[in-house]
Each structure stands twice: as C-alpha cells, then as structure tokens.
Design brief:
alpha+beta, 18 helices, seven-stranded mixed β-sheet, globular, about 20% strand, six-stranded mixed β-sheet, about 500 residues
Length: about 500
C-alpha cells in the first residue's frame, strides 16, 4: 500500500490509569493506521515522601518510571520510523506535578489518595457545591484538582512550588522544556471558569496557585521542539515538534468518535462509562448539576457534556473474584468471553442492580455483593456465573440508555442514536441491549479511540496534513469497521 506523498508519521504517548503505550500513527491512502510500539504497566504506588505527613494509605504515581518507559518507547518508535514529525501526549485527568526552579517537588499524588475526601468540607465552607458548578461546570468528584489542592495546602511543598503542571503538560515539559497547559485537561481541574474559558482567579488565589499555572494552549498548538539531548538519544531530528493533543484522554476519544450528527450521544466505555453529548455551550443549570452531569472542553471549542458512570468494572471484578477461587481450587481460569456467550442465551432478568450504587465502588467480592443487592431488591440471587453476568450486562445497558437520553434532554434535543467506543464496543450483548433499551440505533467502534484522537489532532496540525485531516471523523469512518445495532427484542423485563 502506498503512503501519501509528503505525509510523515507521528508518535502518540497514551497514558492510562492501568497502562501506557507509545503508538505510531500515519495516513495511508486517506486512512489512518496505528502501530503499537511499546506498552507498559501503570498504577498507584505507596507515597514514600518521608516529610509529607501523609497517612500510610497515601497513594502516588511512579512518574519517573513512566518517563523512563516513555523514553524507551520513543527510541523504539524513531528506530522504526526516523521520519516521525511530531509527538503528542494524552493522559488521565486532574493529577499534577509541582515544580520549583525546574525540579519536581516529590511525587505526583494519585487521584484516589484518601486525603482528597477530607479536604471537601474545607473548600465547600468557602464555595458551595452549587457555586462551584456555576463557575466550573463540573460534577462533584472528590478527586477533582480543586479538592486535591485544598488538601495540598496543609503540606509544605505547595508554598515552595513556582509551577503546577498537569500530567500530560509535565511530560510535554520534560520533552521540550516549555511549560504550557492544554485546555481540555485544564477544564477537568475545576480551576477553569466555564463562562470565560480562562483561569478562575478567585479560586486560583484561594487554592494557593496564583502565578503557578501555565499559559493555556489548544489542541493542535505547538508546545515546542524536542530538546536537543532527547533528539540525540532517540536518533531524531531537532526539528521534531511536540504538539498539544486533546490531552485529556476522554477528549481525544470523543474527538475520534464518528458521531452521526448533532443529535447523537457517545459512550466511551471501559472501566468507566462516560456517557454524554457534544454541545457548543456548557449547560450550567441546576437541573444539570442535580443530575450529576459535567461540562468538560473538547476539540475545536466543543463542550463534552457527560456523566461518569460505572462501565465494565463490575465484569472485570467478577471474573477476577472467580479466578481467585479457581486458583485456590486448582481449576481452569474463568473466561469472560465464554460467560458472555452463555449470558446472551438467557432470558432478560426480572430484577436489576444500580451500577452506580456505592456498594459496588470498591474492588473485591463483586459477585457476592451483586447477589446481596439482588436479594435486597426482592429478587433471587443468580444461580450461576452466566446468570450474574447477564444481570450486570442488562443493568449497564439500562444505565447507559437512561443517561444517554438524559444527556440529550438536558442538552436540548431528542436522542437519535448512540455511538459506543472503547473496549466496551466489542461487547455485542451490551451494545444490542443498549440499543433495545434506548430504542435508538447503536453504532460500535472504534476500540482504540484515544490513541486515534491523539494521532489525528497531530496529523491535522502538520502543514501537509491540514487538508487531508480536516474532518477527523470522516477519516475515522474510512479507517475502521463500525458495527450497527438496531433496537429489537425485549425492551424490559417481563
């Protein structure tokens, strides 16, 4: 297959909460192709700072190991394709590095660190939850950056720091020496005012970060050139640019979701399910706040109006529990694919669970807790594993369908279709039942949406790519196979 003349590949650094990877992306005959170069593990580690006064349960990220793996992946990428033109970074949201005179102060704290819950009342004594939503448009989540910073005020390093950089911006700084803050991720912090699109100076001052936040840039803007010493290490040209992707991973995923039109909803389905719609303006009403929706910024000035709901976590946790039992009994491992095939042949369950119930938030003993919830709701605990899996799938589909309609209603339109991307798009039963219960068509795919969005924003930013990648979603539709599900069958329990 011939490559588009003059079109160079790009490298995407895609950092998730459980793994990271370096991917090469390029245009080939009008289609985007991805090549996985390096994958590496990620996850929380204990906080080891001796002077932080943190509890024994305090969590951090091993950002130095991530940086080592990123460098290894980029060297592999340039070995494979020396003509890489740019590099882009996306990652999870809300977490940050603190720097003083160019040196990081301690570790990057993890958003699940228990200190955040304790800080909520302190901040909300000064700004009510309703006022915070009116300013930043975000649903209440105790791990949002504003609550982390309120907790940080009790520790010494915030006062010492002269720079705060969100995780992808910190990686960009390591690559270029340039401090910038990309706005899709900035919008997840709670520090960005949704009405002005700029830092909320009153909140910034209250939380002790005045003068410490980097200038805001937008997806597609150049952060800077790759540092000469890194270019030598990777075997790259000094002219390689680091380009701001839509650096919040969900923003990249939505940018690459080939929505059918303005009346479509999307579900980015992995461990979490992000259910929402794309709008031109934020929805800052009391109804939106009461319904638990959030306003985050997306590509080209769009607003991602969405709700964070439980995704495939219940499935993976159930399988993990059964496999622990199987290992103890020296039995074969349980395979989710086998259980899903069996579950598809079972009738629609009469009693469902609420996937959002706090009883299901923590890991461990998930099948036991699901059975207890069914009993409490007046049903009969499932007799077999496939029956429990069917209950979970049905409950997730009901949640997805309801929240997609609610997002559209609050966004001011009637829902016409739903697009599911990410790992959950591979679940045929989940996609079909979401279509049935929402009573609208569901389109599934692509699976690799986050890296795809990262790559496409970079390709569009290159001089030779502006025309070829003008419509990102059209490129995606040409590049991947999508599956369509029409609403049929039993709509609800008999």
């Amino acid at each position: 297959m011939s490559r588009n003349q003059g079109q160079h590949p790009v490298a995407a650094i895609d950092l998730g909460a459980t793994s990271g990877r370096v991917v090469i992306g390029e245009l080939v005959d009008g289609k985007v192709e991805l090549t996985l170069v390096h994958r590496f593990a990620n996850g929380p580690v204990p906080l080891v700072e001796f002077d932080s006064g943190a509890s024994a349960q305090a969590l951090a990220w091993d950002i130095d190991e991530l940086w080592s793996q990123i460098r290894q992946g980029l060297q592999m990428a340039f070995d494979l394709r020396p003509d890489i033109a740019s590099i882009g970074v996306d990652s999870w949201a809300v977490d940050y590095a603190l720097l003083k005179e160019g040196q990081r102060l301690g570790q990057v704290r993890h958003y699940r660190d228990p200190r955040n819950e304790l800080a909520v009342p302190d901040l909300e004594a000064k700004f009510s939850r309703a006022e915070l939503f009116e300013r930043n448009g975000l649903q209440f989540l105790a791990f949002n950056t504003i609550y982390q910073l309120q907790a940080e005020k009790q520790e010494q390093r915030l006062g010492e720091a002269d720079q705060l950089l969100l995780v992808p911006d910190y990686i960009n700084w390591l690559l270029t020496g340039q401090a910038r803050c990309e706005w899709t991720n900035a919008s997840t912090t709670g520090l960005l005012n949704q009405r002005s699109g700029t830092w909320d100076e009153e909140l910034v001052g209250q939380l002790g970060v005045a003068g410490k936040l980097a200038p805001i840039i937008h997806p597609g803007d150049s952060v800077g050139s790759l540092l000469p010493e890194l270019a030598r290490e990777f075997g790259a040209s000094n002219s390689v640019q680091v380009v701001a992707a839509a650096s919040h991973d969900t923003a990249s995923a939505v940018a690459a979701t080939p929505l059918a039109g303005k009346n479509s909803a999307y579900i980015s389905c992995g461990t979490w399910g992000l259910v929402g719609v794309e709008l031109a303006e934020p929805v800052l009403t009391e109804q939106a706040q009461a319904a638990g929706f959030t306003n985050e910024l997306g590509l080209d000035g769009s607003v991602r109006f969405l709700k964070n709901v439980t995704g495939t976590f219940l499935l993976s946790e159930s399988v993990s529990y059964w496999n622990q039992q199987a290992a103890q009994a020296s039995e074969p491992e349980v395979q989710l694919a086998d259980l899903l095939a069996q579950a598809a042949r079972l009738p629609v369950p009469l009693v469902l669970i609420d996937p959002q119930d706090e009883a299901f938030l923590a890991p461990g003993r998930m099948p036991v807790r699901i059975s207890e919830a069914i009993n409490k709701a007046g049903g009969t605990a499932p007799e077999g594993r496939a029956e429990l899996i069917r209950i979970v799938i049905e409950s997730l589909a009901a949640s997805f369908a309801a929240q997609a309609h609610e997002a559209a209603r609050l966004g001011g339109f009637d829902l016409e279709d739903i697009h599911i991307v990410g790992g959950g798009s591979q679940g045929e039963l989940l996609c079909q039942r979401t279509a049935d219960l929402a009573r609208v068509p569901v389109v599934a795919g692509p699976v690799e949406c986050t890296a795809l969005g990262n790559v496409l924003v970079q390709l569009r930013s290159l001089p030779q790519g502006a025309d070829q990648v003008d419509d990102l979603r059209a490129v995606v539709r040409r590049s991947v196979v999508l599956r369509n599900y029409q609403p049929v069958g039993v709509l609800k329990p008999a």
